[in-house]
């Protein structure tokens, strides 16, 4: 159902799980029933919020690492610097920078050198 995007089969699965499944599965199926339209759409549509959730997780991790140690401006610089350097190695760090954001990348690298990020 999940891999083949067959969300239309969810109602039948919920009924079977509530009647025949273990108690924990029945409770889980009941909680899915409360938000059935959303879960069905998630199982049917090809769209995903995975990329956005990954960025939120990355930002929260950086924030947690810097808790109580630095100001908001340094946190902002570190988040932007990591996005600037993501996917590039040390020698080719600016390979993805174009003319529009090259100045921003250089400023962030200067800040990083100042604070030893």
Name the features.
elongated, mainly alpha, 117 residues
Mean of all residue-level pLDDT scores = 76
> Regions with pLDDT < 50 over 5+ consecutive residues?
87-96
Give the N-to-C terminal Cα separation: 45 Å
| Helix content class | 55-70%
Q: How many distinct beta strands?
A: 0
The fraction of residues assigned to DSSP E strands is: under 5%
Task: Explain what you see.
With 117 residues, this protein is mostly helical. The longest helix is centred in the last third of the chain and has 17 residues. The protein is elongated. About 9% of the residues have low confidence.
Write the SSE topology.
Elements: H1 10-20, H2 23-34, H3 36-44, H4 50-65, H5 72-85, H6 99-115
Helix pairs in contact: 1-2, 5-6
Gist of the model:
The chain is mainly α and 117 residues long. It has helices spanning 10-20, 23-34, 36-44, 50-65, 72-85, 99-115. The longest helix has 17 residues, at 99-115.
